[in-house]
Amino acid sequence: MKQDITLQAKSMEQDTILRVENLQTKFKVGRKMVHAVNDVSFELKKGKTLGIVGESGCGKSVSAHSIMQLLPKNGNITKGSVIYQGEQGQLKLHELKRNGKTMRNLRGKEISMIFQDPMSSLNPVYTVGKQMEENLIRHEKLTREERRERVITMLRELGIPDPERRYGEYPHQFSGGMKQRVMIGTAMICNPGILIADEPTTALDVTIQAQILELMKEMQKKHGTSMILITHNMGIVAEACDEVAVMYLGKVVEYGSLDQVFENPLHPYTKALMRSVPVMGMDRDKELETIPGATPDGSQVFTHCEFAGRCACAEERCWKQMPSVRTMEDGHRVRCLRYEEG
């Protein structure tokens, strides 16, 4: 029995391409120290999609920027680890220099990122084709013609009509949805092991959002890419993710498979997020619920549950104790005092 558990643990370890453990990232803002990411842990399995969800300012994007070592000068990883299992073996990303050779070689080649707002992510004075070639120039030894053919093939995969002509056009000649497809293609051009997509459907209408999500799933299936999808929309998580990490004020308050989180949400914050999403067939006169109050200041140091002031289930002890992470029998994890006594 003990041997079976050990073999199962080794198998799970082999299936994990990225492991984040107890990550803490702080920003110095004036005299304040902002705890943007505070004791965050999650795993990304090979070929799967992890959704990181929560309100604006909860630390989703900073977690991604910490993985990529793209923090500004006033931001630093102060604790924890980021372990990447790549083609060359295991790498401790948190120990690499931000602009060191190893990290530069990883970005775009083995770990790529789609940033928020495709409208401003593309340079207006360069053609789309030339911008998509930048990763190839940095990471692949190809001739100019080979790079051109690779980009045109990618544009065709992205469903962009007449890719030979589009290769030489400028961003202003593309619609918002087409620009987002270009951003996906730019990130995928070197076939990375991990793709981090930060709010990839922001500012797009619902129909285009669905198309972009479907395209990302097709690309993931074709190339075997592992993906982290950052969003504030639980509907997008339900559509595209295999596992879910719910974040609040820099911490993961709930973590589990899609079925675990959606069929049996444990944390009051997760439940509140789900009640704020429209559901097919719901009464058109029924108002969506909102979470009362506002997210506290990230520089505030708590000795009790950070969500207590907004939680409908808060008890007296929630104002006195800091909850720890409890792992349920099925592996579902939650940070809430209601579950600490079993």
What does this structure look like?
With 342 residues, the chain is α/β, with parallel strands linked by helices. The protein contains twelve helices and twelve strands. The strands form two sheets. The chain has an eight-stranded mixed sheet with strand order 6-7-8-3-9-10-12-11, sandwiched between helices. It has a four-stranded antiparallel sheet with strand order 2-1-4-5. A hairpin with a 2-residue loop joins strand 4 and strand 5. Helix 5 crosses helix 6 and helix 5 runs parallel beside helix 8. The radius of gyration is 21 Å and the shape is globular. The N terminus is likely disordered.
Brief synopsis:
With 342 residues, the protein is of the alpha/beta class. The chain is built from twelve helices and twelve strands.
Q: What attributes does this structure have?
A:
342 residues, alpha/beta, eight-stranded mixed sheet, four-stranded antiparallel sheet, 12 helices, 34% helix
* Span between termini: 25 Å
Number of helices: 12
Q: Radius of gyration, rounded?
A: 21 Å
**What class would the helix/strand composition place it in?**
alpha/beta
Largest sheet, in brief, is: 8 strands, mixed
Major beta sheet, strand line-up: 6-7-8-3-9-10-12-11
**What is the number of strand segments?**
12
Percentage beta strand: 15-25%
Helix content: 25-40%
Spans with pLDDT under 50 lasting ≥5 residues?
1-12
